[in-house]
């Protein structure tokens, strides 16, 4: 390390260093300030968007309670259009899908749920939308396509929704006239999840399992 014998030499060295490095130093400081300001503005903007979307969603829920169909639809479309990156856009889509099911608009509900699966980044929302989509397809008589959507799902992909997936598969198999597969799916649902009275009723409603005839 270089040693300076006098204060004057130290001062001259500092002045030389400042002349050589002041531009990059100033630029670095300004960049750091810009990053901090930008980050704070981004956080403020995200918070503001979430608050506005939350307020609209609360209005949507209130309109739903009052059975105000048109305001519910308008508020939902407004949330999705203005705040697509918030979780409330997902919630709005799910509520709009329910509204369409209640109005017997199964094709419309199917389209909304498919859009939810395509747009959401929340894994839980994906599962919920897929399960509801399967139920809508079951109600529409699309048992084959619904099973094609669900059957490739591995236990790992089903996650904590495994019991619901297997129960839905059982419903689809039963509707497709495949009671043996339905029974297996219901039994698997019992194994991986809580046993519900409704699930037991579904099992009881299936035709009795046949045993192979003896020689």
UniProtKB/TrEMBL annotation:
Localisation: Cell membrane
Gene Ontology CC entries for this record: plasma membrane
Pfam families on file: TPR_21
Topology class, membrane: Single-pass type II membrane protein
InterPro entries tied to this protein: SecYEG/CpoB_TPR, TPR-like_helical_dom_sf, YfgM
Protein keywords: Cell membrane, Chaperone, Membrane, Transmembrane, Transmembrane helix
Membrane-spanning intervals of the chain: 24-42
Chief localisation class: membrane
Molecular function GO labels: protein-containing complex binding
Origin: domain of life: Bacteria
Annotated Ancillary SecYEG translocon subunit/Cell division coordinator CpoB TPR domain residues: 16-207
Family to which the UniProt record says this protein belongs: Belongs to the YfgM family.
PANTHER family for the chain: ANCILLARY SECYEG TRANSLOCON SUBUNIT, UPF0070 PROTEIN YFGM
The protein's name in its UniProt record: Ancillary SecYEG translocon subunit
Organism: Methylocaldum marinum
């Amino acid at each position: 390390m270089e040693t300076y014998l006098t204060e004057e030499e130290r001062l001259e060295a500092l002045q030389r260093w400042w002349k050589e490095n002041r531009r990059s130093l100033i630029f670095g400081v300004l960049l750091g300030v810009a990053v901090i300001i930008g980050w704070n503005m981004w956080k403020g903007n995200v918070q503001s968007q979430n608050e506005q979307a939350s307020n609209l969603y609360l209005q949507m829920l209130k309109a739903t309670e009052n059975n105000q169909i048109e305001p519910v639809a308008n508020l939902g479309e407004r949330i999705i259009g203005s705040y697509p990156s918030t979780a409330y856009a997902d919630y709005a889509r799910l509520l709009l899908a329910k509204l369409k099911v209640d109005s017997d608009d199964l094709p419309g509900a199917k389209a909304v749920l498919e859009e939810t699966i395509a747009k959401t980044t929340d894994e839980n929302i994906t599962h919920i939308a897929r399960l509801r989509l399967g139920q809508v397809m079951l109600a529409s008589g699309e048992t084959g396509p619904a099973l094609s959507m669900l059957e490739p799902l591995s236990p790992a992909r089903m996650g904590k929704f495994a019991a619901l997936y297997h129960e839905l598969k059982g419903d689809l198999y039963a509707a497709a006239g495949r009671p043996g597969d339905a029974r297996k799916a219901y039994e698997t649902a019992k194994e991986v999840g809580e046993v519900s009275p409704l699930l037991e009723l579904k099992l009881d409603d299936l035709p009795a399992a046949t045993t192979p005839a003896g020689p």
